[in-house]
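User: I'm new to structure prediction. If I give you an amino acid sequence, what do you actually give back? Let's try with this one:
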Amino acid sequence: MLDRSSIMIHRVPMNKLSTEERTRVVSALVEGNSLRAVTRMTGVNRTTVMKLLADLGRACSIFQDRVLRNLTCQRIQCDEIWSFVGAKERNVSPEKKAEGWGDVWTWTAIDAETKLIPCWYVGTRDAGAAYHFMHDLADRLAHRVQLTTDGHRPYLMAVADAFGTDIDYATLTKIYGEAIPPLEKNGREKVLKLINDRAADFGRATLGNLADQSPRLASDMRAWFELYLKGMWPPETDTGEEAKG
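Assistant: Good question. You get back a string of structure tokens that encode the predicted 3D arrangement of the chain. For your 245 residues, that looks like this:
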């Protein structure tokens, strides 16, 4: 009979990814590849990739929170990006809703010049989320900035509460109407034309930069939400709040 102590002595340690393997996986992830694509490209098991992604996200969140302070941004643009966890809101049962399924919004702030994202917040699209997001942004800026958002009403009180009068704030409202003369598409649909961008004293500021980033952000969020469904995110060190930047 084999002695139990000999079993313990000859036990093979669990395999771990080398630094080179981790680098390959992380490089593929930051290029926007899906989890399955990274698995095919690197040969690393998908579960291992997901665990590494959770570790990477935790490290990046800590780094961002510590380093992105006293930023000298001049023009900041904010917007919210919709996605969902598990299923869209209208298809979620009360039981799944209690587990966190349904619509989710990523609030993002972006520097119009450098494309740096000073902060972000994942949660609902209500006044509470706007309050948390704007206060986080205000804490990271070194001086007065020009801030542009869309017409989402919770921004109004949140910006006033976080910045007071120390902000140059404007909302960008897009007004659509029929082209003149009306153009027909396939004999039925009228082509709509953007006839006016209404804003107040914000010069070149637009929300186009965030719109350009939306497809990439949506791809990244799908990977994070898959981690969420498997219980691998947010980190256990969180205090119950939604993930934040």
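You can read the tokens as a compact description of the fold. Here is one thing that stands out. The first strand starts at residue 75 and ends at 85.
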